[in-house]
Amino acid sequence: MPIQPLIDAATAALTMAETKPPFSPQEARIEASRCLFCFDAPCIMACPTGIDVPTFIRKITTDNLTGAARTILEANVLGASCARVCPTQMLCEGACVMLDLEKDPIQIGRLQRHATDHVAAHGIDVLHAAHTKNGRRIAILGAGPAGLGCAAELARLGYSVTVYDKQPAGGGLNTYGIAYYKMRPQVSLDEVRMIERLGVEFRYGVEVGRDLQVADLDRDHDAIFIGIGLGGANRLGIPGEDLPEVVDALDFIEWIHTRPLDQVPVGRRVAVLGCGNTAIDAVTQAKRLGAEQATIIYRRGAAEMSAYPFEYELAKTDGATFLFDATPVEVVAKDGHVAALTLAKTAVHEGRVSVVPGSEWTEPFDLVLKAVGQEKQIGLLGRLFPGLKIDSRGRVEHDPTTMQTSLPKVFVGGDAASGGREVVNAVAEGKKAARGIHASLTATATIGPVQPSRFGMPDGAVGSGFDHPIRVHELEAALTQG
Ligand code: SF4
After folding, report:
1. Entry pTM
2. Measuring from each residue's beta carbon to the nearest atom of ligand 1, which residues come in under 6 Å?
3. HSE-up of residue 322 (Cα within 13 Å, Cβ side)
4. Which terminal residue of the chain has fewer beta carbons within 10 Å of its beta carbon, N or C?
5. d(C-alpha 423, C-alpha 81), whole Å
6. Is 83 exposed, middle or buried, given 0-12, 13-18 or 19+ CB atoms closer than 10 A?
7. Distance CA 45, CA 257 (A)
8. CATH topology of 137-231+376-442 equal to that of 246-370?
9. pLDDT per residue over 408-447, tens digit each?
10. Atom 2, ligand 1: residue with shortest CA distance
């Protein structure tokens, strides 16, 4: 049977409600006042974009929400979405000194949301483009977090920036691939609009290599930033994989973001293959959209899953079930649709997973979601950029300080550089690349650390792997002239 939507709109509104609701003004003030405003604050160092956490929290205590948002967004232009999707327990909140005092960490993510929601709700722009353009043009491939982080920083430095994306809207994973109960796509779309107001031009529905040639971009621009994401889910390589109800988990999440919730088809018995954070997002949303059973199937043990522990606990709370040390060996069809999975036990020997002979059994499923990792875009990048060096793991080789690739005019960040990390890492890399581009195009290289300069850095200059000293104050002056 083809899969169908299972719940009505009213039920979906309840089950897909945000898991972390916003603070009230009073709650925010009380939480902010718990902060110790640490010197050398470890929460700053734990943030890949180096948000000055104690400074923005202090501003919240005095009701200066616009100032708090400015502190956040100057460091991380996607501060609103990162407030919702960052694994804060593993980053800023995980580093909070309150934990050493055996107290709950400051809820930095929710405070960050409180401040950034304020400026979004009141239409206040706290970031500004440079007063004058410097005459340089930069092309950015991909309107995801890395591309947006790069675009905003370049616009603030006076560059004319054009972002190309094949999707009809910007935001990348933030718009199309985050669990709905964590963040609404509108938050991401609002961030894109904020960057548009910095003067960045977005061209959607454009696939580079098909609609636009890299040679043309090269001719018309002073630098190119590669911010494209990963490809589709990896192939399973088992019979029945091409049946219509075998779907990429990210495509399933995209259905949720692009259709009314009561029109999203869901299986009654859903199998999710893999055990990373995308798998968790998929399995929890399937449950919340009415699946009677949603099971994660993972070929290794619980100790080896890549999902964060708090995500695992959330999935169990939502009623998801877990089948460890098992793998599908065939998708079984009935009348051209998925009817079951044939599964087998697995064993791990010297790090390698193998199927235990004779251990197969069959369980009924009507939707199979693949969350087994995404393909690297090695072929695409090789075709677009002949000579671009790509390492054995499919990542574009680059200078870690400037994000410059083996092609001097081409810079990279996000999935293409890292192979896939958190949204906040992609923003940080985009920002770092913007500074690398700026350094490469200006006579006096001016680049600052993506992490803050006020702690642990020599005053005014940092060594960076560049051939020349890097003057932080020059970059900061350029960024604040707008
Ligand atoms: Fe505040 Fe915790 Fe950061 Fe210290 S570590 S400044 S207490 S949020």
Report:
1. 0.88
2. 35-38, 41-43, 53-54, 96-98, 106, 108
3. 23
4. N
5. 9
6. buried
7. 33
8. yes
9. 999 999 999 998 899 999 999 999 999 999 999 996 544 5
10. 96
